[in-house]
TrEMBL record:
Pfam families for the chain: ThiF
Superkingdom: Bacteria
Classification via SUPFAM superfamilies: Activating enzymes of the ubiquitin-like proteins
Gene Ontology MF terms in the entry: nucleotidyltransferase activity
Entry-linked InterPro entries: ThiF_NAD_FAD-bd, Ubiquitin-activating_enz
Native source organism of the sequence: Mesorhizobium caraganae
Protein name: ThiF family adenylyltransferase
Keyword check for Iron-sulfur: no
Keywords: Nucleotidyltransferase, Transferase
Domain THIF-type NAD/FAD binding fold, first and last residues per copy: 209-475
Length: 501
């Protein structure tokens, strides 16, 4: 085992949470999962999330019986359920957070059996398009009919979120009591009254683009692959690699230890192949993709691209210049998934008149440039000793960087300039956590299924769904256009709003 400190981005300070985390031993009571596809999905997703919460989860004890038949991020079944999740965890983290049999000593117990048995701190259930999380047991029939992963995956995200809050300590917000969610209606409330959506297995997904194969993008692809679709074709575009330090692995669901320093689209291709999704990957930026020549493209996309036309694009990028690039293609419909701290969000762009486009409010901010300038000014204000301490180990050529900072009127292109510029441009890494990304991914995938199942003509469509883990709320809303948005001024050829054909 290497000395990598895998993915601690969820350990960064966050308003409303405690500062010190203590690793917890988690017991998952899963029961016999043979034939219970919804609980298999829930267990797979939950273990994959907990196995990435380094520093918060010490080990995962799993009480489970039976066979696992659903696809997992590291392979396809069937397999003994315990072995399947044991392999999944060691693939994801190299044994750092192991899956072990129960030994009677645990800090937190998660019960996902759907039966009235006390003694757990977290109860969770997911089925169809719905998810439930609570602090007291309740019975959920014995319906083993639904094969969808949407509700179970969201339920897993909610359960991992509760573990996170328990491990960190909560100063603002609350723990789950009896909270249900529908990815169909985008609402939270009581389980009995929330509307469920139709089965997605065996449905046909129109060919589409997924731009961004980081946490949210991989989560969306995981959902699509686990949804047993009749047909699909995803063009996944991402230029990035899973970083060598392993900081991506706290939330890149389709990546294991062996994927470090490998392109993110490689992990996507592997999972797509064994989960039966159609498609191709492009290891490069969206701009590179547009300029590249490609073979093996879906004929429908091939024809559309020849006309410079993009029907359906999933935006799973995390920087605003990339969002501008996507909107710059004038796609007819964009489904976006994103996170901000403990908030997950999914938005359908292009179907509601006068509602925002992806480019409206995601303007590349000059805040970053200003912050970089401020950091350089702060460096210049330091004493030479302080500067040396600040930059040591952070730049390639320390002496050149120090001499650049020491010159009162530095020349453009002076030795050391690029070192200093890249140092001040590196922002402190932001908070990000596996379960928030997975929630955004399930919400975006649900939005995608809604859009492609013909609900695009719903005049009351509220395109934006927001889930806040701190207070466990989920709500729909609509955000108006920004006047002056360059993209919204482009007149659509076939009138607005768009309809998927
Ligand atoms: Zn706009």
């Amino acid at each position: 085992m290497s000395g990598l400190a895998l993915g601690d981005r969820h350990s960064r300070p966050l308003d409303g949470l405690g500062d010190v985390a203590s690793p917890k031993t988690i017991l998952i009571r899963a029961g016999d999962v043979s034939g219970a596809v919804n609980r298999q999905h829930l267990l797979v997703c939950l273990v994959n999330l907990l196995a990435r919460l380094h520093g918060l989860v010490g080990s995962i004890r799993v009480a489970v019986k039976g066979e696992m038949t659903v696809v997992t991020p590291n392979g396809a079944g069937p397999a003994n359920a315990f072995q399947a999740v044991e392999n999944l965890a060691s693939w994801a983290n190299g044994g750092r957070i192991p899956v072990l049999p129960p030994d009677g000593v645990e800090d937190l117990t998660i019960d996902m059996t759907g039966q009235m048995r006390g003694g757990a701190s977290i109860y969770v259930w997911g089925e169809g398009w719905k998810a439930w999380i609570g602090s007291a047991p309740r019975a959920f029939g014995g319906s083993f009919g639904r094969r969808d992963c949407l509700g179970p995956y969201l339920a897993a995200a909610l359960a991992a979120g509760e573990v996170f809050k328990h491990a960190k300590g909560l100063k603002k917000g609350r723990f789950a009591r009896d909270d249900a969610y529908s990815l169909w209606s985008g609402e939270s409330g009581r389980w009995e009254v929330l509307e469920d959506g139709p089965a997605v297995s065996d449905t046909r997904l129109p060919p589409l683009y997924v731009v961004g194969a980081g946490a949210v993008g991989q989560g969306i692809i995981q959902v699509l692959g686990a949804s047993e679709l009749a047909s699909s074709f995803l063009v996944t575009i991402d230029h990035d690699r899973h970083d060598l330090e392993g900081t991506n692995l706290n939330r890149c669901f389709l990546a294991g230890l062996d994927d470090l320093d490998r392109p993110k689209v490689e992990a996507v291709e592997r999972y797509r192949t064994f989960s039966g999704l159609g498609g191709l990957e492009h290891s490069g930026t969206l701009r590179d993709y547009i300029l590249s020549s490609r073979s093996g493209l879906h004929p429908k996309l091939d024809l559309a691209e020849a006309r410079d036309s993009y029907e359906l694009v999933v935006s799973a990028v995390d920087i605003n210049t990339s969002r501008q690039d996507i909107q710059g293609l004038c796609p007819r419909v964009v489904v976006g998934g994103s996170t901000d701290g403990l908030r997950a969000q999914a938005v359908i762009y292009g179907l509601v008149e006068q509602a925002e486009c992806l480019g409206c409010w995601n303007v590349p901010d000059d805040g970053r440039a200003k912050a970089a300038a401020a950091r350089e000014a702060a460096l210049r204000a330091m004493s030479p000793e302080e500067r040396r301490k600040e930059l040591a180990g952070q730049v390639e050529n320390l002496d050149a960087a120090l001499s650049y900072l020491a010159s009162a009127e530095p020349r453009c292109g002076q030795l050391g300039e690029s070192d200093v510029k890249s140092f001040v441009d590196r922002m402190p890494p932001e908070f990000s956590a596996s379960f928030v990304s997975m929630a955004a991914a399930t919400m975006a995938a649900a939005s995608l299924f809604r859009v492609t199942s013909g609900l695009s003509s719903d005049v009351n469509l509220q395109p934006k769904t927001i889930l806040q883990f701190k207070n466990l709320s989920m709500a729909k809303t609509v955000t108006a256009r920004r006047s002056g948005c360059a993209h919204c001024c482009v007149v659509r050829e076939a009138g607005s709003p768009a309809k998927l054909g």
